[in-house]
Known about the structure:
Layout: E1 11-12, E2 18-19, E3 25-29, H1 37-48, E4 52-54, H2 72-85, E5 89-92, H3 99-105, E6 109-112, H4 120-129, E7 133-136, H5 143-154, E8 161-165, H6 183-190, E9 195-197, H7 199-203, H8 206-218, E10 223-227, H9 245-261
Parallel strand pairs: 3-4, 3-10, 4-5, 5-6, 6-7, 7-8, 8-9, 9-10
Antiparallel strand pairs: 1-2
Helix pairs in contact: 1-2, 1-9, 4-5, 8-9
Bound molecules: phosphoenolpyruvate and manganese (II) ion.
GO molecular function, one term: 3-deoxy-7-phosphoheptulonate synthase activity
Keywords: Transferase
EC number: 2.5.1.54
Amino acid sequence: xxxxxxxxxxxxxxxxxxxxxxxxxxxxxxxxVEGENLIRIARAAKAAGATxxxxxxxxPRTSPYTSQGMGERGLDLLMEAGSELEMPVVxxxxxxxxxxxxxxxxxxxxxxxARNAQNFPLLREVGRAGAPVLLKRxxxxxxxxxxxxAEYVMSEGNASVMLCERGIxxxxxxxxxxxxxxxxxxxxxxxxxxxxxxxxxxxxxxxYVRPAAYAAVAAGxxxxxxxxxxxxxxxxxxxxxxxxxxxxxxxMRRIALIRDAV
Length: 262
Ligand code: PEP
Ligand code: MN
């Protein structure tokens, strides 16, 4: 709460990458870690200016009959890529029993997915683990409820929480979710925690990801989380919203211009 904590929280995510307090970072990578293509995608993302690497190894899929991710092997691939490129790794943990594994592997930032935004035992467990947390807004979560989810993490002694707007469910069907750009200034008004925007899940379609990213940057997001894939038609998940490396590089050029202007 800004009333008791007026200064912005700055979170050290590893490899010297700070989020919050005027530092701006871009988290990029595929929706799912799929194998050897990870390092290629990560190199391209870094060359375009990404500062953190994302990828899902344990995937929260709507259907139990679709790929559930590579699991532990996916974490190893992420950590290898992160150490080669000196990029902190952000990856989703779904089960409180896996938190210890993620910490042991050296995962830099524990992502809590939208579907687990109110999984209170999981929130408490990542709170106890102490590593920085990227907390995604639940798909039907109000801003106040999101803040209470953050309190679950922080009440266990972990103040390193980033809040992520990733789109909410509304009556609109032309996009996968509705990007609540308002949440960015509202969260900055209410809290000292860094605010991250995810234009990929917010829109669901490659063609809308860049405009949403630009809006998020103009609205003051402290970081973006963007899905990038070198062959979206073959992606295990979320290919429809992936940017190719050239599209991502194009986005990064315009983001730099917007950052200079605001
Ligand atoms: C993801 O980042 O790939 C993801 C599953 O996001 P969300 O939890 O926001 O749907
Ligand atoms: Mn995804």
